[in-house]
Amino acid sequence: MNILLTSSLLETLKVSVSVWPPGSNVYLGECVLLQCSVESNSSFVWSYGWLKHSTHADPPTPNPRHLVLGDSYSITAVTREDAGSYQCQARRWDSNSSSVEFLSQTATLSVSELPSASLLTLTPSTRQFFREERFTVQCPVSQINSSGWRLKHFPPISGVRPRVSHTDPYSLPGGAVSAGRSDRCEFTADSGNSGLYWCQGAEGRSNAVYIKVSYGAIILKTPAFPVFEGDKVVLVCQYWVGNHSKTTFFKNGAENFTSPGSDRVIQMTLENVTQEDEGFYKCASQDRKMESPEAWLSVSPHRERLQAVELPATKQDVTEVQWDLSWMEMSN
Q: What sequence ranges are listed for the domain Ig-like (predicted)?
């Protein structure tokens, strides 16, 4: 037996959705994280599900950019189709094997293009790093004053109350603020550096990027931000140790290219990319004993500015997301 309740009806329990970076407006091409939290006096173990309200009349199709892990819902490389209202369902089971579900209030996202003066820079431009690699996150150049931006970091800790660090010499693990520059931070990658980064200032905020630090044997590096049609793109397969003969690249699970070279770093070049090149890529050793996590390549069709996408006041369809499965595909 399932019972569905709205959290606002219960004084002792509150289910809410937080958006990171904070705010209802998100930018094309960035990464966004929604987190469900339950404030309760009980010690129940909770499982989570998600609802997305859309205005599309067509049936929802699986969207690999939408991923869920426990109480977190992440969107990689935001597009205009990601505008909509999102809700979290928190479920607990009673001793008599019946479940009770609590529904959060909606979190509504609108999508617009990032202002050119608000661009965060990541060097090198990739979302995946090996431990001990160095990278730099640079906030935009402020139009107001030299210290107008501060770098923010949201770590990927499921089930923990959100805590955002900002740039000072002690708050970002593995990071060191450049001399006299609170808007620039240099890192030697370790597990504490994984998470969402963005810059905040009097002028608003920058785009956000999700960085993952790997302790595995192989990773694939794709551009951290969307590329444009016609660009030349280099995908880099990198091993932690040793040289490896023949490395195979895959796109959306299908074999795409095999390099005969023998090295610790293997490249695949895409000339004049189109939107057909967009997708999840990975690489693997010849014997398939080493296989990288998938990395998303986002391709934008043009460079013209786009207007914000608001939600029209029409009847909405609701997509229900399955419960608490590890990094499963979401529906748009």
A: 29-110, 162-300
**Per-residue exposure over 4-41, b if at least 16 CB sit within 10 Å of its own CB, e if not:** eeebeeeeebbbbbbbbbeeebbbbbbbbbbbbbbebe
pLDDT at 181 (0 to 100): 59
Backbone φ and ψ for 87, nearest 5 degrees, come out as -135, 150
* Under 8 Å between Cβ of 90 and 48: yes
Nearest in space to 54 (alpha carbons), one of 301, 309, 226, 307: 309
Using a 10 angstrom Cβ sphere, with 0-12 exposed, 13-18 middle and 19 or more buried, the burial of residue 109 is: buried
Q: Residue 276, SS3?
A: helix
Chain CA centroid to CA 273, Å? 23
What is the mean pLDDT of the segment spanning 301-330? 40
pLDDT value at residue 243: 78
Pick the range with the lowest mean pLDDT from 41-45, 75-79, 184-188, 230-234.
Answer: 41-45
Distance from C-alpha of 86 to C-alpha of 50, rounded to nearest angstrom: 7
User: CA 205, CA 103: separation in Å to the nearest integer?
Assistant: 30
Nearest to 229 by CA among 306, 125, 299: 299
* 60 preceded by a cis bond (ω within 30 of 0): no
**pTM of this structure:** 0.79
Q: What is the 3-state secondary structure (H, E, C) of 92-143?
A: EECCCCCEEEEECCCEEEEEECCCHHHCCEEECCCCEEECCCEEEEECCCCC
User: Strand 47-54 and strand 317-320: pairing?
Assistant: antiparallel
Domains within the chain, CATH numbers bracketed: 2-113+311-331 (2.60.40.10)
